[in-house]
Amino acid sequence: MVIGSKIKGFHIRILLQIAAHLDSPAPSVAKFAHEPSTNLTCSEKTPLKNLSCVSWRWRKIVLPILFRYSRIPLDPNPQWVPIDARIIDNMQGQLTKLSNHELQVYQHMRSKFKSSGSSAYEESFDDLLINLCRIDDGDNFLKSVPHILWFPHLPRTGFTQFSRFVQQYTLKHHIKNVVVYADRNYELRHVSTADAHLAKVVQEIWTQIFELLEPTRIVVAAPPSTLAGLLDAQMLSADTWAFDMKMHYVEFAQQEQSLQKIQHTGPKCRPWNAALVHRRPWNHLAYNEGSSISAYSTYEYHLKQSPRMLYLILLRLAKEASDCCNIRSFSFTGVFPFHTNTTVVIRALQKIRTLRQVTFQLAPGPENDLLNAPKRMGRAQPSDLWLEWNGCYKIMTGFLGAYEFADGARFVSKDCSVEAVKQDVGEYMELLQKKGLGWTADGEGVWVRDCSRDREVPSTAVPPPDL
């Protein structure tokens, strides 16, 4: 029996090794730095899925690996109704057909309107509005209302089925990476009563996900307005129309090797509240805001501001998270962002004292032929694009020179994967070396902080980089 069990265990390990060789980087990893789109989790090659279909035995072997990366789509269907007096009047004529939930809504709102002393059809009554009401199953009247609104929310049936699947196959501790995505814009910021509802439904989303799973990496992919709501942040921009950014990505991660090494300074070292940024002691933050190129075709483009959720997240980390569990690694991807917008991110980044690696990509990657796409370029001038790119690197050079990086800290420029700009990045790093700062090259696009190479130079020899 002992020999048989050993042979069986050895056989299972062989099968696991075969499955591991067929594994490949998840698309949410491989394509995170690409221009954001709804295809983040899509892949043409699915060897593990194919292997899981060979037999039940292979499926049992592959299942924990196959679902290590999982995606959770938000429900695209509108689920909320703004209840005003006119809707209540219409409900009065169909009381016998209303569901129990609809009757409760009717009675609550009717008493509210009666206490106002106004007529439902007076102009002043429009200000009394509007209670936002979520549609429950069986609310046929509310489903027939012409104007149904959308809040970010998990699909009831779909997420319930996913939860059962996770529990049935004991996958909670195997699913380490989760992508939450949506392709609808949240457009209710003009409704004064919407913020409280938004905060509640977003809290429900994260609570349900983190009760079900224990992810060490979570990616949120959504249009900027929706992402702002999911991150409990604001956009701080009235110019989003100019940038035409269909989607942003944000990634929070805990590196596996650091999970057991955190020694918290106390229970209040982080708020540990409902916001995603404080759900776990994340030590890595990555953000991809996509392309700013459409804004270059607008009048006085340099005055435009892109959405600034990243700035607010960084400020929140700087103010609310202690050094023991703040981010060590930061990555930013954007295609020709304005140097003014990059300055805002850098200034917030400076307030975080724990950084050990900083990664930037500000030009199109090898997979992106944007500069040769006339429709995408519009009236944008290539000279303006590279002028802003250079402005961003001047700001970054100033940051690398002023921030107190520890020995071994790394700066990574993914722009160096493009041969045409590799030399330009190198020249900016040489400026730091001429200032007497020990940043040494360590492969393509990588520089490592070496304090032993620091040296004093006359203050007039090289002007300091702008910041």
Please characterize this protein's 3D structure.
This is F-box domain-containing protein. Helix 9 links the parallel strand 4 and strand 5. This protein starts with a helix and ends in an 18-residue tail after the last strand. Strands 1-4-5-6-7-8-9-10-12-11 form a 10-stranded mixed beta sheet. A two-stranded antiparallel ribbon has the order 2-3. The longest helix has 21 residues. The protein has 3 domains: 65 residues, no CATH class; 64 residues, no CATH class; 238 residues, no CATH class. The protein is built from 16 helices and 12 strands. The chain has 467 residues and is an alpha/beta fold.
Features of the shown structure:
467 residues; alpha/beta; 3 domains; ten-stranded mixed β-sheet; two-stranded antiparallel sheet; 16 helices; 12 strands; 38% helix; 13% strand; globular; disordered N terminus
The tally of structural domains comes to 3
Mean pLDDT, nearest integer? 86
- The portion of residues assigned to helices is 25-40%
Question: So how many helices?
Answer: 16
Number of strands: 12
- Unreliable runs, pLDDT <50, ≥5 residues? 1-8, 123-128
- Round the Cα radius of gyration to an integer and report it: 26 Å
User: Main β-sheet, in a few words?
Assistant: 10 strands, mixed
- C-alpha termini separation: 71 Å
β-strand amount: 5-15%
Organism: Periconia macrospinosa
Protein name: F-box domain-containing protein
